[in-house]
Write a structure and sequence with these properties.
Layout: E1 2-6, E2 15-19, E3 29-39, H1 41-48, E4 69-76, E5 88-91, E6 102-106, E7 110-112, H2 119-139, E8 146-150, H3 155-167, E9 170-175, H4 178-186, E10 191-194, H5 200-208, E11 213-218, H6 222-229, E12 232-240, H7 253-259, E13 262-265, H8 266-271, H9 277-289, E14 297-301, H10 305-313, E15 320-324
Parallel strand pairs: 8-9, 8-11, 9-10, 11-12, 12-13, 14-15
Antiparallel strand pairs: 1-2, 3-4, 3-6, 3-15, 4-5, 5-7
Helix pairs in contact: 2-3, 2-9
């Protein structure tokens, strides 16, 4: 099969499109002919072997990245009902990696793709959608909240805006550049702002007309997170749901105590709850099939995985980045 292989940690150009042996399903596994595979920001960090950034352990090399896979079962392993062959499925645990034409997965990690849902939407939601729902479960937004979502045009941010809109919260979406701001506005955010503008947080305060932000869902980190934190009302909540800038931001503990603000890193909480993942994966797929959540995707051919990584790292993408064999 053809796959994208990393032989040495470093820049995106180190991802090489080449021929590798076909994987074979073992007992209790199925093999999937990949129709779409997801790309994660954390995979760009692992590829570059960044230091000082929280991420999973680096893989042994050579490595094929990616676990999010949607496609058709083309072969079943020992002990698997033969009727699985030919079914459209999606998984978050494809091996040796999703950046390939074929991947295998344990049957227990596989979901059938709901009727009417395409491969791209399914693979966009199996991790990004389920993660969004888990993060929101930690954040506990309510209808009366004024919620500021940073990185609101990203995969998680877009879904969070939709969820909060339907919940009845007042939604402020912050993103970089006019096109992304327009996309956030189209999602139904009450206010969409460009956080590449130096005084964006002041504009938010003015537009809210005296209403204070009660909840920040921060997906970017760094200086933009710091500016978002300044908008939180006393007694509000600051929840970390990502770090698109790859820069850390930690609210000052004394400020938190003095103003009664709670700060939660929802990502760390999710790491400690792996048993919740299958339930939220199924829920994300169902809510997408029923039209309540609509992911945005940006697709690259499999052989252009290096370009996909470069675009994701430069924050030039909107929504979920996919590779299509």
């Amino acid at each position: 099969m053809r796959a994208v292989v990393l032989h040495a940690f470093g820049p995106a150009e180190n991802l090489r499109y080449e021929t590798v042996p076909d994987p074979m399903p073992g007992p209790g596994q199925v093999r999937i002919a990949v129709r779409a595979a997801g790309v994660h920001l954390v995979e760009t960090m692992m590829r570059a072997a960044l230091e000082g950034v929280a991420m999973p352990p680096l893989p042994d090399l050579p490595a094929i990245f990616g676990g999010e896979v949607a496609g058709t079962v083309d072969l079943v392993g020992e002990g698997v009902d033969p009727s699985w062959a030919g079914r459209d499925v999606v998984t978050s645990a494809g091996r040796p990696g999703g950046y390939a034409e074929l991947a295998v997965a344990d049957l227990g990690s596989v979901h059938r793709v709901p009727s009417g849902l395409g491969y791209e939407a399914a693979v966009a939601m199996v991790v990004t959608g389920s993660t969004t729902l888990q993060l929101l479960d930690v954040a506990r937004p309510v209808a009366g909240d004024v919620v500021l979502v940073t990185s609101a045009a990203g995969g998680i941010g877009r879904l969070a805006v939709q969820y909060l809109r339907d919940l009845g919260a007042t939604v402020v979406g912050a993103a970089g550049g006019p096109a992304k701001v327009a996309a956030v506005r189209d999602l139904g955010a009450d206010l969409a702002v460009d956080y590449d503008e130096p005084s964006w947080h002041k504009a938010v305060a003015e537009e809210l007309g005296g209403r204070a932000v009660t909840l920040v869902l921060d997906g970017v980190g760094g200086d933009k997170a710091r500016a978002a934190f300044e908008l939180i009302a006393d007694g509000g909540r600051y929840v970390t749901i990502g770090a698109a800038s790859k820069q850390d931001f930690q609210p000052d503990p004394e400020t938190l105590r003095a103003r009664g603000i709670t700060a939660t890193n929802a990502l760390l909480i999710l790491i400690g709850r792996p048993e919740d993942r299958p339930r939220f994966e199924a829920r994300a797929l169902a809510e997408t099939a029923e039209g309540r959540l609509v992911p945005a995707v940006q697709s690259f051919p499999l052989e252009q995985a290096a370009a996909a990584h470069a675009a994701l790292e430069s924050r030039a993408t909107t929504g979920k980045v996919l590779l299509i064999p």
